[in-house]
Amino acid sequence: MSEQPSERRRYLLLLPAPEAEWAELPESEHELGMQNHQRFHEALVARGHELVMASPLEPSASAVSMRNTGRGSAVVTDGPFTESAEQVVGFYLLETHDEADLLEVVRAFAEGGDHVELRRLATG
User: How far is residue 8's CA from residue 43's CA, in Å, rounded to a whole number?
Assistant: First the structure.
């Protein structure tokens, strides 16, 4: 990822995690996770990145998935779109003019214990 220093771009930071394992962790591990998120928020602000929106997601079991049948209709099912050990459990929508610095902040967040996937939003 590279860009012009003055161009503002938006990024989606996805938070994949094994839901079942997270639910079984002791409260002390949940607290460590929340502290990592707080440090991340503080670093974003301190380094001039904008947190546009962030939210945890409800469990994937409450998802509704829809697949095109190829015949002009869709099959609607309960649960996540894909079956996997990890599901997206939350997200951040970020905006910055300094992608290289944002990558440093996100790397520190991941090193604090979170799995992340950072994706640039497509333009035009």
Answer: 18
